[in-house]
Design a protein that fits this description.
single chain; 276 residues; alpha+beta; two-stranded antiparallel ribbon; two-stranded antiparallel sheet
Length: 276
Amino acid sequence: MYLSIILTPVFALGGMGVFFGGMLAYASHKFSVEVDPRVVQIREVLPGANCGGCGFPGCDGLANAIVAGSAEVNGCPVASAEASNRIAEIMGKAAVESEKKVARVICAGGTDKCVQKFEYTGIKDCKAASMIKGGRKSCNFGCLGYGSCVAVCPFDAIEITENHVAKINDNKCTGCGKCVEECPQNVIVMVPFSNRIHVNCNNKEPVKKTLNKRCKVGCISCKQCAKVCEYDAIIFENNVAKIDYSKCQQCMKCVEKCPTKAISGEIEKRANRNLH
């Protein structure tokens, strides 16, 4: 009698478990959504950083977009050339070879070069600092140096120098673009990895407010760099020089001519040029 009292609920619960398990299995099969096997294959090839640099919600989102045709096979800024080629192979396409891009801080106006308007003692965050008269620097377009970009970089590729300017390690940067989105000054841009020449100024104010009064290394819009460039690779937008990397031959003439050294250049090409 006592045994039946114990076993009856056990068998009842066991039977219910089998019944509902069967129902769930049936529902899973009946209402399952077919997944394109290519999505799974591409997801396995992607690096899994889930950085969002591709513009999609993580690697799963990009894999689905590639198969759907709404993203390129080399749409992942973190993936290596080999990974992109493998994805192209899965999709039955030829890989589109494109040079890796990395983030670049277009400001050299640290506390040793740029005059400070006031002493800032608030929250050590660039967005917060920029809300107070555009930040402590006399240049309202320069790097504030409080490391908001450092906080969002998932690859430890950014550091803040002793002169309070962000500096990016090209060899660690994957080009995810998170720092570009985070910077309230819009002082971080994406540039080709192999290019040696950069304009390190973002100041869009008139020349008279720049020349040795606010920043010693600011672009003064003298256009001497454009005059010596034989390839028409330098243009001016909002009083500041910009380089057209599709035309630049890296001859270094603009670097030599710039009177304020707002344009910098490396003498040797980087040996580990990367493609993705």
